[in-house]
Amino acid sequence: MSNQEVSPFDFAYRGKTAAVKILLEENEKLKTQTDSNGRMLIHWAALGGHDDLVRHLLSLGVPVDPSDDTNMTPLILAASAGREKVVNTLITEGANVNTTTDEGHSALQYAASKNWKNICKSLLENEANINIADKRGATPLHRCASKGNIEILKLLLSYEPKIDQQDIYGNTALHLACEEDRVNEAKMLAYFGANINLTNKECKTPIDLCSRGLARDLKEIKGTESS
Asked: Against a cut of 0.90, is the pTM above it?
């Protein structure tokens, strides 16, 4: 494929910084132009993890928080893709850590779901809302408990989230951990105070959703033999 057939946005995603710089010198308006997805060069550079290019674009006055056609920002894209250096650069340059997509997904929720611990830590240290919920009511705690991301769960619990926050189906993080048979995650949530008897919209408790063995362990943790 010749360079003429490659878009500037593809160059940015692939980290062709020298080529992008030349194109920007030829056409200054390119720095804030958008593609068919409403994304600027900085979106693609962030998604590709090219910190040098992200820094260069910011030095030219490119906004740090532009939204694409689904309200994804460079920070959300970088957090979702595990681009730690880019995440830290964007945060340092003032990116809003609590911006959400059209579906309500935040950078922290993506990072918690995809098991990017250092990114979660950076976001939390910079005042990311630990209880932020998407349109289905799922929080970062729901996502990591459901996925079985134990180290992320430990990190989130150290920030004292609303441990029994319910999604639109009435499920807590413990409901989801039990349903997915995430044994260690379920036990950890119980140790930290999660309610084993809270019912969801189907009138099911976490105990109703887990294996007999896990149910016994959770009851022991809570010091109860209630069913």
From this structure: yes
Question: For residue range 125-170, what is the model confidence (pLDDT) as tens digits?
Answer: 999 999 999 999 999 999 999 999 999 999 999 999 999 999 999 9
Neighbours of 63 (CB within 10 A): 17
Answer CATH for 130-227 from 1.10.1760.20, 3.40.50.300, 3.40.50.150, 1.25.40.20: 1.25.40.20
Burial (0-12, 13-18, 19+ Cβ within 10 Å), 217: middle
Cβ within 8 Å of residue 76, ≥6 positions away: 99, 101, 105, 106, 107, 110
**Helices 41-48 and 51-59: crossing angle, nearest 10°?**
150
The angle, 0 to 180 degrees and rounded to 10, between the axes of the packed helices 84-92 and 117-125 is 10
The span from the CA of 191 to the CA of 71, in Å, is: 37
